[in-house]
Write a structure and sequence with these properties.
Layout: H1 2-16, H2 27-36, H3 42-54, H4 60-64, H5 68-74, H6 81-99, H7 103-107, H8 111-119, H9 126-136, H10 146-154, H11 164-174, H12 179-195
Helix pairs in contact: 1-12, 2-3, 2-9, 5-6, 8-9, 10-12
The chain binds a DNA duplex through helix 2, helix 3, helix 6, helix 9 and helix 12.
DNA sequence: GACCAGGCACATC
DNA sequence: GATGTGCATGGT
């Protein structure tokens, strides 16, 4: 198991090189993106982020000062826009109440405690919380997503319906807790999941094709 | 015109 | 704990 997870990383890293995630200018932009990209393609999120930037309100204060309906209009392209407006609002409210919008202060909270706090916010589930922690705050947590699940189950390493926590533990118990490693590994899984693993015929050109058990 | 995309909350069994 | 449903846009 350990060997397999490490092998997958080495193969992908060699084939595709560093991915330099997350594509954003500031940690706060990462966090907004993490919420907006829930079950949504990144392309649609980019449009929404651009609109927020154009308005000059891509900041905790900026979002907080906006009416919910107005915010929803700006992030329309990212889908589920009414719900996501709520989620962004509750997130910036949390930043204000707990840390006075100070992300350095946020970063000083011990990892598991901070993760618990994030999960307490309505609209922040495990993947979004972990993305905020890893890509926004550079904390060593592994981000699990649909791609990680699909790739590992296709190769017979996990069962398709393994829980989020089980999948996360698998990575975290078998890899060194290195924020940079977790960052690159997740980004590489997304790259492969997106471009190759969506349909089985393309497995021929995948660098992982020689791993056991591709259907 | 389906089908999918870097989920989550909530109801129900 | 597992399973089903609503939420919504833009690209293929």
């Amino acid at each position: 198991m350990k060997d397999q997870l490490q092998m997958i990383y080495r193969i992908l890293r060699k084939a595709y090189g560093p991915q330099h995630w997350w594509p954003a200018e500031t940690p706060f932009e990462v966090m907004v993106g993490a919420i907006l990209t829930q079950n949504t393609s990144w392309k649609n999120v980019e449009i929404a982020i651009r609109r927020l930037k154009e308005r000059g309100i891509l900041s905790p204060e900026g979002i907080r000062g906006l009416k919910k309906e107005e915010l929803a209009g700006l992030i329309r392209s990212s889908g589920y826009f009414r719900i996501k407006a709520d989620r962004l609002k509750s997130f910036v409210h949390f930043l204000h109440e707990e840390f006075d919008e100070n992300l350095a202060k946020m970063r000083r909270i011990p990892l598991q405690r901070l993760r618990g706090m994030l999960l307490g916010i309505k609209g922040i589930g495990p993947e979004t919380a972990d993305s905020i922690l890893l890509y926004g705050l550079r904390k060593p947590v592994f981000v699990v997503d649909a791609y990680a699940r699909r790739i590992l189950s296709r190769h017979g390493i996990i069962r398709e319906k393994a829980s989020y926590e089980a999948l996360e533990s698998l990575f975290m118990e078998n890899l060194v807790h290195d924020e940079k490693l977790f960052n690159e590994y997740h980004a590489l899984l997304v790259l492969v999941g997106k471009t190759l693993c969506r349909n089985v015929p393309k497995c021929d050109s995948c660098p992982l094709k020689n791993l056991p058990k591709i259907p």
